[in-house]
TrEMBL record:
PANTHER family: DIS3-LIKE EXONUCLEASE 2, RIBONUCLEASE. PROSITE patterns: RIBONUCLEASE_II, S1. The lineage of its organism: Bacteria, Pseudomonadati, Bacteroidota, Cytophagia, Cytophagales. It is an enzyme of class 3 (hydrolase). The gene is rnr. This is Ribonuclease R. It catalyses: Exonucleolytic cleavage in the 3'- to 5'-direction to yield nucleoside 5'-phosphates. NCBIfam families: 3_prime_RNase, RNase_R. Residues 705-761 are annotated as: Disordered.
């Protein structure tokens, strides 16, 4: 045993012998008689090593003691590194998150899975937080980091784009992968950080010049761990699928090619995974077919296509592109219900009266032929004018959809109408304008029939069950809101003059809908609707039969979008299995796939929002800094106020240092800042006029000034001059980190929703 190893053993034994006591480093020096400076330094290094290994624990006053084996050491959670100086560890099933100072993370990074112990139990009382330290990093969550590379003579640094990674990645000069200074790159971390060592790695992909649209969109995908390209072997397997439908397959299906059939989708859509058919019956009723692309016919278990579809779990919709779950041969070709082509479908066919009463249903595989492709705008024009293709059928469907919608609300569905932000882009992806997409009857028509199919498929599978053991099924569930979150939301909107009931579950939906009707058309509409959505529990996939609170459905599945959602593929397979008389399979594999799909959906949604935020900031960076915008205060903190610009739904920060003429303090209980001399108040929900002070594309953040600030005009001119003379322009860091509400943290700024795709319920 070397001298260093022997010394380490003796130091560890000293602390174990004196378990329960703490010692300063100087006291350890004295115990070992360390008069020599080198020995003292060696002892210090040994203490730090034992701390990193979890054998010692550092206490207040820079004292150290042996780590006690307590039940808390078994706590496992995910790191949320919200600030350079501290993080929270989120533990499933625990109400409060555990506060950990960065120096006690043991080198853990954001999203890492760690084992930790509690060093101070706040007990959730009086706002006191529970604190802890990481004992062991169990699983690394983010091995690939996206950022801008800075190349120096002997090494390079990658400055991460991600807001929650605070240290640059050190890259040996021979591992830069051909990157040039200032380019967006993906770095693979090969040496993880510790308390005293920064992360190191190598460049695995060069995305392009920072600021270029393609490079930035690829960077967003990589930042959230989403794929950019399909592996070649997956593409080859897709290309090998025959284009022609075998006659034998047609003979095994219900042939509905002669029934009037059409699709209604966005004008720029390329994949059409649902179609409607209508035919009148002799008894006066109408038969409505909801036809869904039969992806499960082409994507078979244990194939490369299946593995890739499972891995992706969802298509991703960025501002300027779709990253599909399936290769183009399938997503835009064989599985897409394109007009004037025979296609294989999985169908839900309903017999209804013209008053909207459901009297019969059939589920099974079909072959269809779409006669017409409508855009939403084209279908809306037919509905409004009665002229064009299928006016009678579209009018009937619209009336039936309104009946179904009215019945949903009568039973307690909540009328969420969140704003969808859209962009006009030039050929290079540069934003020329921002607008908020309006949902009209044609959108709602499609939505209602998709909801009908999803609900009835779930009910059908459930009712096929025999005995107490119910059939395994993939459900889309949405639980009732957490009472505390609901009360917090009610307090927020009360400041704006709106009321939401929180005591009785049956009254929540009614009062929420009434409030949403009241806020429609007001400046705060987008803010309140976004807050309302976030107050609700997050919808997710599971095999548990928990119902859907927001839609007021006892059972609900996802059946209607298998081109872009893996859970729909699972639902198709299970439905066909039961139609064939199969017994219920074990739920565990499906539940694991549900958890994976829910997580991938969350990451895709975050990437979508990041792309929207990037384009919003890019668009606002082109504005004249003297231009004034109407805005509304969406968050109040001790470092400033967040404002959403109404016209563009983009959000920025007015720093407290830019609030002139007074010293402002946070009144946390009332969500406002108060000037100590003038008593001027800035509160949540206030309307304000603002100007753009500065933008930071790298951080997707924006600083604002109040338009009536005495110095706003001169400051804006100074920023314009500084930006034009700076070699990196508006890339310099100015952003503030938005924080999840925790005990002892500032009043939270509500995070932006926006940009969601249709039919995600």
């Amino acid at each position: 045993m070397s001298f260093v190893d022997k010394l380490k053993t003796e130091v560890a034994a000293f602390f174990e012998t004196n378990e329960g006591e703490t010692f300063r480093a100087q006291e350890v020096h004295d115990h070992f008689g360390a008069q020599d400076k080198k020995l003292r330094n060696l002892l210090n290094d040994t203490i730090h090593e034992l701390e990193e290994e979890g054998k010692l624990r550092r206490h207040s006053g820079n004292t150290y003691g042996a780590t006690a084996a307590t039940p808390d050491a078994a706590l496992v959670g995910k790191v949320d590194h919200v600030n350079r100086n501290f993080a929270f560890v989120i533990i499933d099933g625990r109400d409060d998150d555990i506060y950990v100072e960065t120096e006690n993370l043991k080198g853990a990074m954001d999203t890492d899975i760690v084992r930790l112990e509690v060093t101070r139990d706040g007990g959730g009382r009086d706002g006191k937080r529970t604190e802890g330290r990481v004992v062991e990093v169990l699983e690394r969550g983010r091995p690939e980091v996206v950022g801008v590379i800075e190349i120096w003579p002997k090494y390079a640094l990658v400055e991460p784009d991600h807001r929650k990674i605070y240290d640059p990645i050190h890259i040996p000069i021979d591992e830069i992968g051909g990157a040039n200074d200032g380019e967006k790159v993906i770095a693979l971390i090969e040496q993880w950080p510790s308390r005293t060592r920064k992360p190191e790695g190598r460049i695995i992909e060069v995305l392009g010049k920072a600021g270029e649209n393609n490079a930035e969109m690829h960077a967003i995908l990589a930042e959230f761990g989403l794929p950019i390209h399909f592996p070649k072997h997956v593409e080859r397997e897709a290309e090998a699928i025959p284009d022609k439908i075998p006659q034998k397959e047609i003979e095994n299906r219900r042939d509905m090619r002669e029934v009037a059939t059409f699709t209604i989708d966005p004008a720029d859509a390329k994949d059409f995974d649902d179609a409607l058919s209508v035919q009148y019956l002799e008894n006066g009723n109408v038969e409505i077919g909801i036809h869904i692309a039969d992806v499960s016919y082409y994507v078979r278990p244990d194939t490369e296509l299946e593995k890739e579809a499972y891995l992706r779990a969802t298509s991703v919709y960025l501002v300027d592109r779709t990253v599909p779950m399936l290769p183009e041969k399938l997503s835009n070709g064989l599985c897409s219900l394109r007009p004037n082509e025979d296609r294989l479908a999985f169908s839900a066919v309903f017999e209804m009266t013209t008053k909207g009463k459901l009297v019969g249903e059939w589920f099974g595989r079909t072959v269809i032929h779409s006669d017409r492709r409508f855009s939403y705008e084209e279908a809306q024009e037919v509905i409004e004018t009665g002229a064009g293709d299928y006016p009678e059928i579209l009018t009937l469907l619209n009336n039936l959809a309104k009946t179904l919608r009215k019945e949903r609300f009568r039973k307690g569905a909540i009328n969420f109408e969140t704003v969808e932000v859209k962009f006009r882009l030039d050929e290079n992806g540069k934003p020329l304008g921002i607008y908020q997409k309006e949902r009209k009857d044609s959108n709602k028509l499609i939505e209602e029939f998709m909801l009908l199919a999803n609900r009835r498929v779930a009910e059908f599978v459930y009712k096929l069950s025999k005995g107490k053991n119910k059939n395994t099924m993939v459900y889309r569930v949405h639980e009732a809101p957490d009472p505390e979150k609901l009360k917090s939301f009610a307090t927020f909107v009360a400041k704006l003059g709106y009321k939401v009931e929180t005591d009785e579950e049956k009254e929540i939906a009614r009062s929420m809908n009434h409030m949403l009707e009241e806020v429609e058309g007001k400046p705060e509409q987008n803010l309140v609707e976004s807050l309302a959505v976030r107050t609700m529990a997050k919808a997710r996939y599971t095999t548990e039969d928990l119902g859907h609170f927001g839609l007021a459905f006892r059972r609900y599945s996802h059946f209607t979008s298998p081109i872009r959602r893996y859970p729909d593929v699972m639902a198709h397979r299970l439905l066909q299995h039961y139609l064939d008389g199969g017994a219920s399979p074990k739920a565990e594999p499906y539940d694991e796939a549900c958890k994976h799909s829910s997580e991938r959906e969350r990451m895709a949604a975050e990437a979508e929002r990041a792309s929207i935020k990037y384009k919003q900031v890019e668009y606002m960076s082109m504005m004249d800094h003297s231009q004034e915008f109407d805005g509304i205060i969406t968050g109040v903190t001790d470092f400033g106020i967040f404002v959403e610009i109404t016209a563009t739904a983009s959000e920025g920060l007015i720093r407290i240092s830019d609030l002139d003429g007074d010293y402002y303090e946070l009144d946390k209980e009332n969500y406002r800042l108060i000037g100590q001399r003038t008593k001027k108040i800035y509160t949540f929900g206030d309307s304000v006029k603002v100007k753009v002070k500065d933008t930071n594309l790298a951080r997707r953040s924006m600083d604002l000034l109040l338009a009536d600030s005495p110095d706003s005009h001169s400051r804006s001119r100074r920023n314009e001059a500084a930006k034009s003379s700076s070699p990196r322009g508006n890339q310099r860091s100015i952003g503030a980190t938005k924080q999840k509400k925790r005990a002892g943290s500032p009043v939270p700024m509500p995070k932006k929703k926006g940009g969601g795709r249709r039919r995600r319920k």
